[in-house]
Design brief:
By secondary structure, the protein is mainly alpha-helical. It folds into two domains: 9-53 and 60-70, no CATH class; 72-104. It is 64% helix and 0% strand. It has five helices and no strands. Helix 1 packs across helix 2 (31-46). It is elongated and about 65 Å long.
């Protein structure tokens, strides 16, 4: 079986990969990179192709899918304390201004 052949994957795994790939593309990742990441995630979750062999029936590990949301925040952490404080004060002022406009 050549590398990249998806025949040993179930239809569910292929569907999962398509959904994950679409999510990456919606966030601006290139088509090739989105496909690579999607299949890497499916492989990490399900342990590769599940159609036949002794690996069939193993539990899925959803940690790789949850991991993506936790990776954020690095940009904020890299900013200085003064910059974060300035941003927080600006946000508070905006919320206050909007609340006054709505009459709360």
């Amino acid at each position: 079986m050549p590398r990249g052949d998806k025949s040993s994957y179930t239809t569910k795994q292929k569907r999962q990969a398509r959904h994950i790939e679409k999510g990456y593309e919606d966030r601006g990742v290139s088509e090739d990179e989105a496909a690579r990441r999607a299949w890497a995630t499916v492989n990490a979750e399900t342990g590769g192709g599940k159609k036949s062999g002794s690996g069939r029936g193993k539990k899925t590990n959803t940690a790789p899918s949850k991991k993506g949301g936790r990776l954020g925040g690095k940009a904020s952490a890299a900013r200085s304390a003064a910059a974060r404080s300035r941003s927080a004060k600006k946000a508070a002022a905006t919320r206050k201004r909007h609340a006054a406009q709505r009459g709360h």
